[in-house]
Design brief:
The complex is a heterodimer. By secondary structure, chain A is α/β, with parallel strands linked by helices. Chain A is built from 24 helices and 20 strands. A 6-stranded parallel sheet of chain A has the order 3-2-4-5-7-6. In chain A, strands 11-10-9-12-13-14 form a 6-stranded parallel sheet, with helices on both faces. In chain A, helix 7 links the parallel strand 6 and strand 7. In chain A, helix 9 packs across helix 14. Chain A starts with a strand and ends with a helix. In chain B, strand 2 and strand 3 form a beta hairpin. Classes of the chains: A alpha/beta, B alpha+beta. Chains A and B meet through loops of A and helix 1 and helix 2 of B. The complex binds thiamine diphosphate (TPP) and magnesium ion. Thiamine diphosphate binds next to helix 17, helix 19 and helix 21 of chain A.
């Protein structure tokens, strides 16, 4: 049965029918009819952010921590252009989002009308797909289709551009069950040959490694369970990208830690020396591979991915397995078990890995007088371990240290901007996470510079009483930039310090939140406990060592086995040909 | 296959495909892409090529099924084998794309292009142009006392060859449609 209603009402109805409970947004002329409908109902909560970029990041945080699509609503023109960074971020990290933008009425499109922008043109390369709806009768079907596309296959952000006259006009509402099904149905089951071949490789490998990524998390909690089962049953070591942390528990026996540019020595060495690499839901990103020609030179490589375009894009693999991670893992386990749970002897490999572990690559020089950023994170980990905890981050050194020093036992607990590396992501993302998990502890590990990029969201945090903890590792530097300038640009620190910083405690107070500043390592534990126990948003200004560098580090253009382990190893380590890489 | 100007050693139709996968041989492939005929779909395909740095040698598009609103985009592109594989996979994941066919490797295919040539001249040049047009089976579709417009259908190579001949004879303007291509045989 179809019903007549206005386009604006349809938007709200379709969101309800799609099970949406929260929308992040910011109003403006071109979306007023939708805002009017939101006003007249109580099923969907609208969260007013302070900048549209934050609406998208908050929706990303919501999506990443729940596994459901995030929803955002912005106005035309500047509202839509402000959303572009967030959309690109979500595209690179495969986060399902459905974003609605207002548009000038259809009869004004192309006239440079007030707040007109070619939103479809601008967002075409930064969405998985987008639609301009020109006919109210087609609106509800388009919305259902948008949810289907955002969440099917490799997830991603989609955008629906809504001209104002389409919102006002009446049309027929089509419920999801009646909506036309799209031809868009990516394959989720791998072929039986692919599965059999993978099992044969598992049975024979002497130096295997699982290299997992965000695809495991996107495939849902069931996929993480199956991964654990497979890893524990085979006893193969496992490492993960930044995006995949938590899919396998950090406390698990086979866990090597994160790999990549700032990954752990044992993880990168295992990648370099393995004879079988099983990539599950990762994409051979340049932060992972280092110098392509020297990437894991002696291994047979398997790549499990739902997106065929990821296969052989960067690294040529021996066995592509195209399918959803959860489905593939289920089939692999079934076949491997039915063939007698065979593996080769991997004890020599493990012995080698233990030797690499002995290097203790995360060792840093402790201090009794200044807080080392690594120490701050160690204490944060110790004091929040076992709590119902979610962590977001900004981008920079603090992000890498957080990945190294915090342990994740479950998927969907770690939200960070991986592919795009968007400073300003973490704070709004933490608000999105907190709204989805009101009773959990949500911490944003931030750098002072990143945090300032979306600090206006203090207003949102206060208004919606989200007790998010802004754990700022304040080195008064654009630390990661400073590190590169030190190592690559002759210590010429061009614009890489944070001058005229606000007094973060006063800033918190100005918004009615709590501010805590700590600079003495002896006070750190009490301060962290005070932050955790405070019922409301906290800005935690942790003054840390200003010149600490983040290690290990594989400099751009180097191979996995050419890692720098500490300051002593950095002299002249980075050649100029590596300097052109980012 | 000669029509595709594929470099030596790069044919996949040989029973023994000896091509090195990693070889940096540039191949030319003709892709047929079936898409929903919706607004902006061509921009998506072209944007993908420009955004990822792929080549477009020629591109044609038109609706081919009015009932299902499907359009057929024919793209001639060049790249190494790896790049061609990437292009197909990337095009394949555009949401309104239904099918991607690589006509160059999927079997024998035919390719045609239509071109219009305006040739200006009098006297011997004019006579020679007309004579060559007959040999090439080009039609005269417009004429004045000092010009012809020839219409010609054929492979891109044939059209190139004709253009080369016309140039010294007074070729002043050319319009080409780009390649349309179909696989041979009875199957769709
Ligand atoms: C929006 C944006 N602009 C610039 C950069 C480049 N960048 C990467 S890390 C970084 C410094 C971050 O400083 P801070 O947030 O204080 O973190 P720290 O490295 O000091 O821990 C910059 C400028 C970026 N990633 N994102
Ligand atoms: Mg900093």
């Amino acid at each position: 049965m179809t019903r007549q209603m206005t386009g604006a009402k349809m938007v709200v109805q379709a969101l309800k029918d799609q099970g949406v409970d929260t929308v992040f947004g910011y109003p403006g002329g071109a979306v007023l009819p939708v805002y009017d409908e939101i006003f007249q109902q109580n099923d969907i909560k609208h969260v007013l952010v302070r900048h549209e970029q934050a609406a998208i990041h908050a929706a990303e945080g919501y999506a990443r921590s729940t596994g459901k699509p995030g929803v955002a609503l912005v106005t035309s023109g500047p509202g839509a252009t402000n959303a572009v960074t967030g959309l690109t971020d979500a595209l690179l990290d495969s986060i399902p989002l459905v974003v609605f933008s207002g548009q000038v009425p259809t009869f004004m499109i192309g006239t440079d009308g007030f707040q007109e922008a070619d939103t479809i043109g601008i967002t075409r390369p930064c969405t998985k797909h987008n639609w301009l709806v020109q006919d109210t009768d087609k609106l509800s079907e388009t919305i259902h289709q948008a949810f289907h596309v955002a969440t099917t296959g490799r997830p991603g952000p989609v955008l629906i551009d809504l001209p104002k006259d389409v919102q006002f006009a009446d049309g027929e509402y089509t419920p999801p069950a009646k909506a036309k099904v799209s031809h868009y149905k990516p394959r989720v089951k791998a072929s039986i040959e692919e599965i059999n071949n993978l099992v044969s490789l598992i049975e024979k490998a002497e130096r295997p490694v699982f290299y997992t990524g965000g695809g495991v998390i996107n495939s849902g909690p069931g996929a993480s369970q199956l991964l654990r089962e497979l890893v524990d049953a085979t006893g193969f070591p496992i490492t993960s990208t930044l995006m995949g942390l938590g899919a396998y528990p950090a406390s698990g026996k086979a866990w090597l830690g994160m790999l990549g540019m700032h990954g752990l020595y044992e993880a990168n060495m295992a990648m370099h020396g393995c004879d079988l690499m099983i990539n599950i839901g990762a994409r051979f990103d340049d932060r992972i591979t280092g110098r392509i020609q020297d990437f894991s030179p002696n291994s047979t490589k398997v790549h499990v991915d739902i997106d065929p375009s990821s296969i052989n894009k960067i690294i040529r693999v021996d066995l592509p397995v195209i399918g959803d991670v959860g489905h593939v893992l289920e089939d692999v386990l079934k076949v491997w078990k039915s063939r007698g749970r065979k593996t080769a002897d991997t004890s020599a490999w493990w012995k080698q890995i233990e030797e690499w572990r002995e290097v203790r690559c995360l060792t840093y020089k402790p201090s009794e007088t200044v807080i080392k950023p690594q120490y701050a994170l160690e204490r944060l980990e110790a004091l929040t371990k076992g709590m119902d905890r979610y962590v977001t981050t900004e981008v920079g050194q603090h992000q890498m240290w957080a990945a190294q020093f915090l342990n994740f036992e479950d998927p969907n607990r770690w939200m960070t901007s991986g592919g795009l590396g968007t400073m300003g992501y973490g704070f709004p993302a933490s608000i999105g996470v907190q709204l989805a998990h009101p009773d959990s502890l949500v911490i944003n590990v931030a750098g002072e510079a990143s945090w300032l990029m979306n600090m206006q969201e203090m207003g949102t945090a206060m208004q919606y009483r989200t007790p998010v903890k802004q754990f700022i590792l304040n080195n008064e530097r654009l630390g990661m930039v400073r590190q590169w300038q030190q190592l690559l640009h002759g210590e010429r620190y061009s614009s890489s310090w944070s001058e005229s910083l606000p007094d973060f405690v006063k800033l918190a107070e100005a918004f009615g939140a709590k501010g805590i500043q700590v600079s003495d390592p002896k006070d750190l534990d009490d301060a962290i406990m005070e932050m955790i126990n405070y019922d409301g948003p906290v800005i935690f200004d942790c003054l840390v060592e200003k010149h600490e560098n983040c290690f290990p580090m594989i400099p751009s253009g180097k191979a996995h086995n050419e890692m720098l382990l500490g300051d002593a190893s950095t002299e002249g380590a980075i050649k100029s040909d590596g300097a052109v890489l980012v | 296959m000669s029509a595709l100007r594929i470099q030596q050693g790069s044919t996949s139709h040989s029973a023994y495909d000896l091509r090195d996968y990693h070889a940096e041989v540039i191949e030319k492939h003709t892709l047929a892409v079936l898409v929903d005929n919706e607004a902006g779909v061509l921009a998506r395909v072209i944007g993908l090529f420009s955004g990822r740095g792929y080549n477009i040698e020629s591109l044609t598009v038109a609706e081919v099924n009015h009932d299902t609103h499907l359009s057929r985009i024919t793209v001639v592109t060049t790249g190494t084998r790896d790049v061609i594989e990437q292009i197909k996979a990337q095009v394949g994941r555009i949401v309104p794309v239904h099918e991607v066919h690589d006509l160059t490797v999927e079997g024998p295919s035919i390719e045609r292009e239509l071109a219009l040539f305006k040739v200006e001249g009098t006297g011997n040049n004019r006579i020679e142009a007309l004579r060559l047009a007959e040999i090439f089976r080009a039609n005269v579709v417009d004429s004045t006392l000092e010009s012809f417009v020839f219409e010609m259908t054929g492979t891109s190579e044939k059209i190139d060859a004709f253009a080369d001949l016309m140039r010294p004879l007074g070729l002043v303007e050319t319009a080409r449609t780009g390649v349309a291509a179909l696989a041979r045989g009875s199957h769709a």
